[in-house]
Write a structure and sequence with these properties.
globular, alpha/beta, 21 helices, Rossmann fold, GMP Synthetase, Chain A, domain 3, about 475 residues, binds adenosine-5'-diphosphate, Helicase, Ruva Protein, domain 3, binds magnesium ion, 3-stranded mixed β-sheet
Length: about 475
Amino acid sequence: MGQMEQQWEHVQDRLRGEIGDAAFRNWLQPIRVVEAHDDAVCLGVPTRFIRDWVVTHYAARIREVWAEVQGAPMEVSFVVQPVRRGASGLAEPDPAAAPEVIAVAPEPAPPVDDAMAAPLDRRFTFDSFVVGKPNEFAWAAARRIAESDIPPFNPLFLYSGVGLGKTHLMHAIAWHIRERDPGRTVGYLSAEKFMYRFIRALRYHDMMNFKEQLRSLDVLMIDDVQFISDKDSTQEEFFHTFNALMDQGKQIVISADKSPTELQGIEERLKSRLGCGLVADIHPTSYELRLGILESKVEQIKAEQARPDAADIIVPPKVLEFLAHKITTNVRELEGALRRVFAHAQLIGRDITLEGTQEVLHDLLRTRERHLTIDAIQKEVAQHFNIKIADMSSPRRARAVARPRQIAMYLSKQLTARSLPEIGRKFGGRDHTTVMHAVKKVEELIQQDTDFAEEVDLLRRMLEN
Ligand code: ADP
Ligand code: MG
């Protein structure tokens, strides 16, 4: 295999992680290197349809990733090059078919799975969803929809950062409806899958059939709608379909990583329609919620295991507290860390301890802790708020210095391995309960005040880089 083919495989691997297996199979997997030079490559795409989609959706990212892989800018172009299956099962260029043939010959619609529902994750139910302040509104809205025969609000628009439970809630709605009323049909699709089906129907003049399928649904859920950003007429058509479904009284549930107004590449009209029902966001997790989720995941992990000794495994509260303090990004990472700790203990056959946990998660925690000291945090935070570094350890209690001090304590807890008493000592010999109170207070403010949350997040990112 040539060097460029190898690089393309690397690029593909990276992108598979980013866009998910299904989208990867549909769009990127069939692409082959056709022509390669040192700083330019030409990729062969099996059909014009795929080429157009790949060019608008993935080309920029392919160039970026490729430049990273090879360490220099890369010119990437695309040609339509039909492929046939070789005896090896691998796609091979078909020398008999010139690209023009594709443009002239009408393409028969390729067969696809016709079910409107992607498979649902069995673990994503309401029972396994832990409710806390940051997600209770979204949860309550999801619950209402799952329990209503007619749409209580339409559409429901869920949004949050990654890994905070949007997909979980959507699947939970579907499971609940299936169980309560098997006669009702629920469709759940990723936005990419939906757009793929949709554009395909447009292209093959199969819209009637597609709309018929949609009409047969009682509830339609489209996940990660931020991936729908297409300039041409598809959005227009999508808009009408969307309106028609709403007029027919179908419940629609949409998720995205941003609020409707902040969505990019989506027409104003569509944005306002998306936001005209109930908009519910899931906030970043709080310490309490993370702890609750960890406790519930411990039970879940034990239940999943066939081994009889799994039930006896004890996860000390200290370990859960440690994880809840350190892994604040999202629930997916939190769960991943817990699973690693579990797997490690079982493999080694030892009890789960705090030391063991720190060791297992060494790489995960290290990036943050490598250079970061409490002194550095104090300095950065003091500069940011324009106060003296000495005020970090002074007894002054004026809000103007007390709040930044609390933020610095909070960041010290999150970004270093120091214990509460150690942090207290660094802040003018304060008691560990003072530090604990500061951490709580800052978490509370992060929940209540978006500006505050952004400011703390900004500080964190400056410190981490
Ligand atoms: P999103 O779709 O917002 O990116 P997911 O719904 O995929 O996030 O959630 C990521 C992981 O975290 C899933 O395994 C999910 O079960 C879990 N998770 C998220 N929020 C909760 C919660 N409140 N309770 C239990 N598990 C949760
Ligand atoms: Mg999701």
